[in-house]
Every structure is written in C-alpha cells, then in structure tokens.
Amino acid sequence: MIICFSLENFKMRITGNMVNYFFVCKRKLWLFQHQIGFEQTSERVMLGKLLDKTSYQGRGLHHVMIDNLIDIDMVENWQLIHEVKKSNALEPAAVWQLKYYIYYLRKKGISISKGLLDYPRLKKCVKIDYTSKDEEIMENYISEIEQICKQSTPPKPELKSICKSCAFYEYCFS
Ligand code: SF4
C-alpha cells in the first residue's frame, strides 16, 4: 500500500533504516545514505524480508509505504504499528526505528502513540510506548543523522561484534 503526504520540516529524507543504522554503526549510516549499497545482497536482510512476509497472515495493512520513504511492516487501524525483527534482542536501534515511524506519522496528523516490535523467531512481541519526551529526543537524533550524512567522508570503521554479519564488512576491512 502506498500513501503520499507532504512534510515540510524534514530537511533530509530519512528512512527507518537510517535511524536503525545510526544506533548500530554511524559509518554504516553514512555508506547507506550515500548509496554505497550492499544490503540487498545480505543474507540477513533476505531473512528479515522472509520473516516479515510470513508474520502477518490476514491482519492489518502490510508494507505501508509513506512518501516513498518509510516502509512500515504493518499498521492496525491506524492506531498501532508493527515492526518485525529477526534478532533475539531488544535493541535501541529497533526501538528508535519504530519510534521514528510513530514520530513521522504523528507529524502527518495521525495520532499513534504505540507500536509493537515483533520477534517471530522468539514468538513474542514487545510493546513500545511513544511519550511526549520522545519527540524532542527524536528530533535531536534526526539532527545528528543529518550531520553525519552531510560529512564528505564516512566515519572510520571500528571493529565491533556485529561487523562480521554486516553487508559492508569486506568494504570496511579488506
Ligand atoms: S562492517 Fe562494521 S564498521 Fe563497517 S559498516 Fe558494518 S558495522 Fe560499520
């Protein structure tokens, strides 16, 4: 499903993935935003898409694409959104990606204030509440994301535990 609105106060087009990468790795954020894209070939990304496809049989609106920018896994009655995660851990990256979708929808006048992170492999979901404080925090994060993306060169690679499963690993360390 594709929906288009206009949102004037966004300076840069920021996707949910960019918010996620901001927490995971700032270099990954920069590489992604500059379209140095290896993610589509990553097995983990393919697995995520597969889990997503099998998780919501017969419920809500699936893959709601807004402004050709943010792709929400599922929306229920425009009151609750879902984001499917393949990992086993509740991470700030996932929480803030979901909150970014809520933030974006609220800026469009849709007064959603909660979402669910779905972990199909664990057969559990985690409710995330969006509070009034989150808007200010989110805007600070958006501002930082913009600053990173505007840099002419990417942040230096730093080896982390997630690097070996990152689609950019060879690009960063070979
Ligand atoms: S391999 Fe590591 S340093 Fe490079 S983009 Fe991925 S997470 Fe970041």
What does this molecule look like?
It is a single chain. This protein is α/β, with parallel strands linked by helices and 174 residues long. The chain has one domain (2-173): Lambda Exonuclease, Chain A (Alpha-Beta Complex), CATH 3.90.320. It is 40% helix and 18% strand. The protein contains six helices and six strands; from the N terminus they run βαααβββαββαα. The protein has helices at 16-24, 26-33, 43-55, 92-107, 132-150, 169-173, and strands at 2-3, 61-66, 70-76, 80-84, 114-119, 124-129. Strands 1-2-3-4-5-6 form a six-stranded mixed β-sheet. A hairpin with a 3-residue loop joins strand 2 (61-66) and strand 3 (70-76). The longest helix has 19 residues, at 132-150. The termini are far apart. The model has no long low-confidence stretch (mean pLDDT 85). The site of iron/sulfur cluster has 13 residues, from helix 2 and helix 6.
Which structural class is indicated by helix and strand composition?
Answer: alpha/beta
Structural Rg:
16 Å
Low-confidence stretches: none
- Under the CATH scheme, which architecture would be assigned? Alpha-Beta Complex
By CATH, the topology is Lambda Exonuclease, Chain A
